[in-house]
Amino acid sequence: MSKYFNINGVCYPDKHYMVDLTDRLREIKKLIDQGDYFVINRARQYGKTTTLRALKEYLEPEYVVISMSFQKLSSAKFRDEYAFSRAFANDFLKRAGKETGTGGLDPASLSSLDKKMAEQKEYFDLVELFEGLSEVCRMAEHKVILMIDEVDQASNNQVFLDFLGQIRELYLNREEMSTFHSVILAGVYDIKNLRQKIRPDDTHRYNSPWNIAVSFDVDMSFSPEDIETMLKDYEVDHGTGMSIKDVADEIYAYTGGYPYLVSYLCRKIDESSQSWSISNVRMAVRDLLKEKNTLFEDVIKNIQNNQEFSDLVEQILLNGANVLFEITNPIIDLGVMFGVFIERDGKVAVSNVIFETLILNYFTSVRSTEKMINSDYIEKTQYIKNGRLDMEKVICRFSAFMKEEYRDENGKFIESHGRLLFLSFLRPIINGTGHYAVEPQTRKNMRMDIQVFYGSEEFVVELKLWRGPAYEKKGYDQLADYLDTKGLKDGYLISFCWNQTRPLDDRIIQYRNHNIYEVIVECR
After folding, report:
1. Which of 98, 120, 272, 419 is in Cβ range 3.0-4.6 Å of 93 for a Cys bridge?
2. DSSP letter at 156?
3. d(CA 143, CA 32)
């Protein structure tokens, strides 16, 4: 069977097109060589399980690696320490090869643990478990590494906290009693911040038994160069003649290197039998945003379930709020763990363009007003001519819609929601054939540039506050600069205006070899 781009489950180099993980594995091994305990906490579908699988293989020449997962342990196994200890010991022995030992484990020590469990029956507890595990580590030919994936399955359970406490005690007394050389836990939530997972009420316990762990700072996102390694592997098999660097850069521009999103776009292009080009990367983005998947469901669910988080995302995306990145802020920390927030130039930013568009689509869907839903203004056929989008008409009709339907609203409403209203107006017009993206570098100082893709054409629409003639030239320069970077002749400008010195009419301006179509939306 030929290799393919995998978006479900673990990736294997002989079956799937993958980025080269060697540099990451080398960085992680440095922590292990030092005997560190740590947590790989990353958002869902960020390649944690694939990394653990590759790491196990990478370490096995030097270490005994026992790789487990709590995903397979039912909730009944966490009802008390006896049930948990027995379930953990059974799984450990299975992974270790109870009869023969695995990679240097002593069969006699494994049999001793098995015997201890049989003798104690239902009273086999955490103390008995760790006495047996200590003996296994002492008798092993090589240092023993314990990996546990999907620790989120147990992180709101006191038995799990007690389990971590036992590991901590052995770690602190490792000179007197043998234990694991290194322990790696993996999940979405950082074990040092269990309160982010446990609901904030008095019936849930919070403890911090994992303060022995070091920070895990290895970047697991894919850089453009990482993406190139995957595309080069594909090109060897298929010989498409693609410009690998250009395609990798475009994929990165949309995904920010989020592993699932990178693989999805590649898979979409491969399955479409289309050429590997920048335009087809954009088509794959459009198709992805129309589909339902567990990652998108998680992103939206996290916004729906936390109003403070939702409010902060909205302030950043729609109002260009400059929020200092401070990881001790629990809402920012939550956004980072969900994979939605990153640090960019010391400020909080949404991690990739696809997530930005997904969230903006969600906001436009739930905030669309009755006036807009029932309006003839958003009937798409009036804006499409011979398969091409008439953007000049889109912005003119939006201006007319705002003047007719919102002329009695106060300026504060427009200031807070004008951008969202335009996206709500635009989306049903381009839906199905086109998509949009917001340029993150222009979402401040009351200015936002929106890239609209329809068919093979690209449009740039700038939304800004009109603050008088003194700011006019600066605004045109900003739009012209952006058009220059995109190689576009025409630009579109929507100016929200509050004061009496506004321009009298909508207009077309020739500026620096560009045609700028400007409409004015009065806020009072």
Report:
1. 98
2. T
3. 10
